[in-house]
Amino acid sequence: MKYFVTTAIDYTNAAPHIGHAYEKILADVIVRYRRTQEPAFLLIGVDQHGQKVQQAAQKEGIAPAEFANRVTDLFLALWEKLNIRRDGWAATTDPRHRRAVQKVLQALHDKGELYKAKYSGYYSVRQEQFLTDRERNADGEFGAEWGEVILLEEENWYFCLAKHKEWLLNFVRNRPGFVIPAFRHAELLNAIDRLSGDLCVSRPKERLSWGIEFPFDPGYVTYVWFDALLNYVTFAGYEADLGSGLPNFADLWPCQAHIIGKDIMVPAHGIYWPIMLHAMGFPDDQMPRLAVHGWWNIEGAKMSKSLGNVVDPARLVERFGADAVRYYLMRDIATGHDADFSVERLLVRYHSELANGFGNLVNRTINMVQRYRSGRIRKTGSGDSDIEALKASAVAALGRYKEAFDQFLPHAALEAANDLVTQANGLVELKAPWKLAKDPAQSDLLDDVLFYLTETSRFVASLMAPIIPSAAEKILQQLNATVYNRLAWGELPDQHQLATPSPVFPRFEE
Ligand code: MSP
Checking CA distances to 346, which of 223, 225, 394, 468 falls within 20 to 30 Å? Predict the structure, then answer.
């Protein structure tokens, strides 16, 4: 069984922004870490159907498929630029997905989990959903967040949610780890408590044609969320035809984590999705876990096209490189909470922690080994107490690092690595190898200092590799240690020969 992680699939109604990039980097970093422990699989993708895409295409006077494909290409290009290593690609217009969604609809229909009914009410065009009195604000109005609201009567297909409410409540209550971070658990339970009514899962074609057709009622297409949520199983091979090229479902499921933003936990991922799986016949122990992250804001405000404050991640990568962007987005936010994006913060983190911190340690270490020992390190076992302290800290850092990753907290994993860098840079000042080099009686101590500074550099490169893969690789090359890229302390052998140093983290003008 592989450690299977997915992200939300991104809407193809507009270009990617920093929020999309953050989520994909977070998933990529977690899965890169996991791959050091066990086989792992990352599925990401795009949400190509629905009213928003149809409307965006209409505005431009082109077909929805053309519009969706164009935006899809922007996402694909961005994931290349950002070094996101995906194992699967979920694009919801893929015919394999369509066929599997239709099989699921048919099976749910056969089981009596879908019914057709007439409904008349207020409808939000923007959110593509009917509104109830619960959506009214204190003034009794439907707020601006719903956009244009119209009165609509329609016959549609409904998915039975309400009858599974008790099951879901019990399930979530008894599974505290279902949602991480833990503080979201209560929020979800409250939302389930308020659940009433069923979910409309069809749209008449006259109103929306850009979707997956109902197999038993061709006048309708599938509601975009119902279609989109199913990507997590269809692209893992659920109900796939023979020779589809998709994975073997049993190798991947259950999913270890759906990595999603806080805005789509309720109702989609925390209510609709587990009930869908339950109705499809998935047992409780096969339910996926939700890892819910917060949002990147701009000066405290939501990023939005109308505010004109949307940050284009592709431009950031062009300016600073993928590693700097990845590092910042992992370092300056605690998973689950929000953070404020700014280029100044990116530069502060990059310069202080990468250029002056880790980069400086690596660079001066290799330089000193070259200068004093022609590039060869020797382990002399001096027993020096400062070196012993560094070794103990390295072992402790690895523990902190793994614990942080188990809780989906890369910022804390990086903190552990950076603390070790600070201690190692401190050791350079403390031992002043340039002085030791002048005293033949200190030769063994100098060797030991250089040996452990080198091993610390190698070790930290391995710790940072999931976050900054290209820079870590370059550093390991300079240490002539790409074969020692392992998450363990004490990997470099005695008499190891280093290669030549060259700065890996160039400084940027502020
Ligand atoms: N298509 C749906 C998800 C379907 S999953 C079956 C969707 N797409 S989205 O493009 O609007 O958002 C994709 C992901 O990006 C979501 O998890 C969302 O929370 C995340 N983010 C969108 N803006 C964000 C920020 N400003 N900051 C961090 N993540 C944010 O929702």
Answer: 394
Residue nearest to atom 29 of ligand 1 (CA): 19
Q: Can you give the length of the chain in residues?
A: 510
Residue 78 has pLDDT above 90, yes or no: yes
Is 24 a residue whose pLDDT tops 90? yes
The minimum-distance atom of ligand 1 relative to the CA of 294 is 28
Residue located nearest, by CA, to atom 13 of ligand 1: 10
- Please spell the DSSP secondary structure of 394-448, one letter per residue: HHHHHHHHHHHHHTT-HHHHHHHHHHHHHHHHHHHHHH-HHHHTT-GGGHHHHHH
Task: Give the pLDDT confidence score for residue 245 in this predicted structure.
Answer: 98
pLDDT-derived band at 510, boundaries 50, 70, 90? low
317 lines ligand 1 (CB under 6 A): no
DSSP one-letter code for 267: I
Q: Is the CB of 290 under 6 A from ligand 1?
A: no
Give the pTM. Answer: 0.96
- Residue closest by Cα to atom 25 of ligand 1: 19
- Give the pLDDT mean for 188-201: 95
Domains and CATH numbers, the chain: 343-497 (1.10.730.10)
Query: If you take atom 24 of ligand 1, which residue's CA is the nearest one?
Result: 19
Structure tokens at 231: 């990507």
Which atom of ligand 1 is the closest one to the Cα of 302?
Answer: 26
Residue 509 has a pLDDT of: 82
Beta strands 10-11 and 40-47: pairing type?
Answer: parallel
